[in-house]
Amino acid sequence: xxxxxxxxxxxxxxxxLFDERGYEQTTADDIADRxxxxxxxxxxxxxxxxxxxxxxxxxxxxxxxxxxxxxxxADTAIVAVTETVRLVLLRYVEEGDRARLRYALxxxxxxxxxxxxxxxxxxxxxxxxxxxxxxxxxxxxxxRAELMAAAVVSAHNHVLRRWLRRDTTEPAAExxxxxxxxxxxxxEPSGGKSNGTAVIVLHDQRDPEAVAATIRRALRQRS
Amino acid sequence: xxxxxxxxxxxxxxxxLFDERGYEQTTADDIADRxxxxxxxxxxxxxxxxxxxxxxxxxxxxxxxxxxxxxxxADTAIVAVTETVRLVLLRYVEEGDRARLRYALxxxxxxxxxxxxxxxxxxxxxxxxxxxxxxxxxxxxxxRAELMAAAVVSAHNHVLRRWLRRDTTEPAAExxxxxxxxxxxxxEPSGGKSNGTAVIVLHDQRDPEAVAATIRRALRQRS
Lengths: 223, 223
Description:
Chain A is mostly helical.
């Protein structure tokens, strides 16, 4: 007998049984039986039968919180958010087929899907609180923190879903690109402290001289 | 006796009992009893005891879907999204104290909170599908639709929460302002069809001539 840890045996048993009999038809006792342990052992490791197939979110949320707490300034804050969200993504990717099995189940079973969605909301809240604190009490900062946290989590979920559906084999690179897009959306925080002139030029098809003249006029009008 | 509709009697009974006895300790039978109807009547109107205290989301989601479906072009799409999200907000506002009672319960009881969060995900999905369709198959459009839908829903929730907490008495005006912010975040869609040169000037503190020179150089380098 190979020494597969009890937790893993329970996870494998739960996935197999949910798949074979259906989620509703599987009890915690069935899972414990299949894993060759008692019911008490199952409940020492997991709070409920559905808990068995989800990642250890409490632990992962603690890691997220800790990683975010190391950042204090604006630039380190963006780095911290980006790195943290990549860390969460890679946890799923490391799971491999197990993550895909869970995805198949959460896509089909409303109870499990709702559970997953509620967990995502916990991550989003952590990001929101972190971003809000970092932004400080500027006007509009609360809304901005909310929008940014939602964007960060959506970017993560978008890439994760693409990986789960085998639409990408480069989830980490895709996440970095998606996070770059998120950061660029919020590049100029309202109430930001920038003093220079930020000029963003998009789609240049016109004569540089004409554009320069337009800008000169625009800047003069504002001063 | 005044003729309060059965549905409303059930809602009032559920809120009162959840508050008096706690959510877990209240059964569907208790709610039916308090409303002066039978258990069968309750289950003719609601799927479960927690269903009683939530708005009729199936109906509201159908209204959202229908309103979005009337828009076809980019400008009407933004208007449709903004109007639709305002419509959802106003449903909560019209409920008045009932919405605040629900908020108190969902803040305290995890089952109800998770249920609320799962519902929000259904709205977000409708917005995402609508925005994705409107954007078409441009590269990056799927991510962008995801980010935009998340922003729309977050803006709504931000204002709704402020109203629920009595932080604002002007929820509709605040939502309009928040939606303006959301629209401005996404003002230049990636893969957009613009051909001109969009120049965004932020915080001009430098000499217009110097800026014009920089831009002239930047445009020349790209051509």
